[in-house]
Amino acid sequence: MTFTIPIDNGDSVNNAEADSQRKLYNTFSFLYAVLMASDMGGSYGSTLRYKNIERRRLLEIHRYLDELVLNDNMWDDGNSLGPKEVHNYLTRVMYNRRNKFNPLCNTLVLGGVNNGESYPGMVSMIGVSFEDNHVATGFGNHLAKPILRDEWHADVSFEDGVKVLEKCMCVLLYRDRSAINKLQIAKITEEGITVSQPYSLKTFWEYKAFHNPTAGAEGSW
């Protein structure tokens, strides 16, 4: 499953809908903002059962965040939780559930902007967490991360950032049979969160390698 939790200066929280472990999510930061991209498919085992999932619906993890925000507001000390604090809290939640042998089988992707600094982070189902300039889940960890490492830079523009994410999603679409050619891109700034309408990428399936993918393969298969 994949959750997305965009945090805008600790004030607004969105969650993504549960999905297959194989779903694709790519996130990276640029100047004063974070960009996220995800397809809209939902798998039931190996079946692509749902084809129009918008990853902004509330799930069980939101209960923990509600408690966190409520306790923070009760202090009424003029301070609010930023993305780093929420990320640390979610890491402890996931690690605690893992230690109880009742893990939340999800990967949490968090992005936010606080005091002009962008913050993308990720937490696995066993509480392994890290922050980086770009994060990915599912096959994106293997196929999209090399693209992000090569093409990300701190002063990338919004338009160029969208192109990089679309390139990643296109590669993942070609390589993952359960992927779907319908995606959304979210932009997170200190002013708020903007999620695009669903749209499809232009694809080209006439590559020679696609016609005979086993050409040159070795082995008994």
TrEMBL record:
This protein's UniProt keywords: Cytoplasm, Nucleus, Proteasome
One family name in Pfam for this protein: Proteasome
Intracellular or extracellular location(s): Cytoplasm; Nucleus
Annotated Gene Ontology cellular component terms: cytoplasm; nucleus; proteasome core complex, beta-subunit complex
InterPro entries (UniProt xref): Ntn_hydrolases_N, Proteasome_alpha, Proteasome_beta4, Proteasome_sua/b
Gene Ontology biological process terms from the UniProt entry: proteolysis involved in protein catabolic process
SUPFAM superfamilies found in the cross-reference section: N-terminal nucleophile aminohydrolases (Ntn hydrolases) (SSF56235)
Keyword Disulfide bond: no
Main location: cytoplasm
Purpose: Non-catalytic component of the proteasome.
Xref: PANTHER family: PROTEASOME SUBUNIT ALPHA/BETA (PTHR11599)
Protein family (similarity comment): Belongs to the peptidase T1B family.
Protein name according to UniProt: Proteasome subunit beta
Organism: Brassica campestris
